[in-house]
Amino acid sequence: MAYQHILFEPQQGVARVTLNRPDVLNSFNRQMARELCDTLSTVAGDAALRAVLLTGAGRAFCAGQDLAEAAPRADGSLPDLGAFVRESYNPIVRAIRTLEKPVVCAVNGVAAGAGANLALACDIVMASSDASFIQSFAKIGVIPDSGGTFLLPRIVGLQRASALAMLAEKVSADQALEWGMVYHRSSKSLSPPRAIWPRSQRAASVSSNVASIGRSASISTPSSTSRNHCSAKPVARRITRRACGRFWKNESRNSRGDDGVPRDH
């Protein structure tokens, strides 16, 4: 597939995937959703690629749904947003969660709506100093999708998750770090994430040691999560984080200043 809205750059075992609609803050339309699904499928089938670095072009990570596709049609009818979630967002989140390779997300700028939950679905989330997360669904009268109702309470707790979903309040990078939504907050911008890209490449050699562990959980429906959330997949994530955390800790010993490399907090 020729990509219009995704930049796909495989290099030294790492697939750098960039959401590339900067003029609309990398918001999703159907074409970009199809392209991201295709990219993740390509990574899954390529044994030479052992990790993914997901980020956004320009001043934002992803603003969620492109509302131009959600606007009323000329005849006054409304598009089926539920169909868009089922056909576009759910396959993307499933692909990330079932990919047997770690996915590192570098959040530069705003991550809103489905964009916020896309980031939370990744294994390791790093944020620039100007990053922010917002469950903006309440502003258009819908509930969080793209795995948000599953992931958010497990990360920040039920009270905070309920408030974020109902009030659509913005979470700063510092607050996201304090609440455990991100692994590291850099004092520098990650747009583009040059500071972490070399480390992500080298981390691929570490992640290859755990890539063979099954990651079979699906978070699309309550029934599927109740069946699978205690499977081997959470174990794989913990081992992956520990391995990559040790790698980055060793890397940082020889680094000076805040160059975007994760450190222990």
Topology, please?
Blueprint: E1 6-11, E2 14-19, H1 30-45, E3 51-56, E4 60-62, H2 81-98, E5 103-107, E6 110-112, H3 114-120, E7 124-127, E8 132-134, H4 148-156, H5 158-167, E9 170-172, H6 173-179, E10 184-185, H7 197-207, H8 222-228, H9 232-253
Parallel strand pairs: 2-3, 3-5, 4-6, 5-7, 6-8, 7-10
Antiparallel strand pairs: 1-2, 8-9
Helix pairs in contact: 1-2, 4-5, 7-9
Briefly summarize what is shown.
The chain has 265 residues and is α/β, with parallel strands linked by helices. It is 40% helix and 15% strand.
The end-to-end span amounts to 41 Å
Largest beta sheet: what is the strand line-up? 1-2-3-5-7-10
What is the helix/strand order?
A: EEHEEHEEHEEHHEHEHHH
At CATH's second level, what is the architecture? Alpha-Beta Complex
Task: Pick out its properties.
265 residues; alpha/beta; 4-stranded mixed β-sheet; 9 helices; 10 strands
Model description:
By secondary structure, the protein is an alpha/beta fold. The chain has one domain (1-68, 79-254): 2-enoyl-CoA Hydratase, Chain A, domain 1 (Alpha-Beta Complex). The protein has nine helices and ten strands. It has helices spanning 30-45, 81-98, 114-120, 148-156, 158-167, 173-179, 197-207, 222-228, 232-253, and strands at 6-11, 14-19, 51-56, 60-62, 103-107, 110-112, 124-127, 132-134, 170-172, 184-185. The strands form two sheets. It has a six-stranded mixed beta sheet. It has a four-stranded mixed beta sheet with strand order 4-6-8-9. Strand 2 (14-19), helix 1 (30-45) and strand 3 (51-56) form a beta-alpha-beta unit. The longest helix has 22 residues, at 232-253. The radius of gyration is 17 Å and the shape is globular. The termini are far apart.
